[in-house]
User: Fold this.
Amino acid sequence: MHHNQQVNPPMSVTDQALIDEAREWLRDAGDGAPTTKASLTRAAKELGISFNRAWAIYYGRVERLWAAEYLSMKARAEAAKARRIVRLKAEIARLETVDAAITARLDAAAVSSLGAVADQPAAAAPAEAGEPEMTGRGARP
Assistant:
């Protein structure tokens, strides 16, 4: 048996599952960055690991995550997710407020414009006797 196989036994399904989970945290933390490098830089900072370690995890170049490393990344990822949720809820509330204000203005404008049309007597009254009726395009019959 080769020395490396004794020191580093083959990767287990559990190891791969943990690495896949860490890779997902990297994707979430770096979401919205314009490039993969920027995404990994942002994610590494948010998860408290080096850019090189983030790169190695993202591209599948690691065989194992240390328990302390995994738990630290997990805690930071969950905290970051909670912050994103709070930020998104605040943005939703702000947009709902803006939507309500715009709807109120549009409703008020629609009601006032309908009232203005009803107040015009020429629009509501039929043509008086003796006065020729107007037809399309302003022409007289």
Summary: The first helix runs from residue 3 to 7. The radius of gyration is 33 Å. Helices lie at 3-7, 13-29, 36-47, 51-58, 67-119, 121-124. Residues 78 and 100 are 33 Å apart (CA to CA).
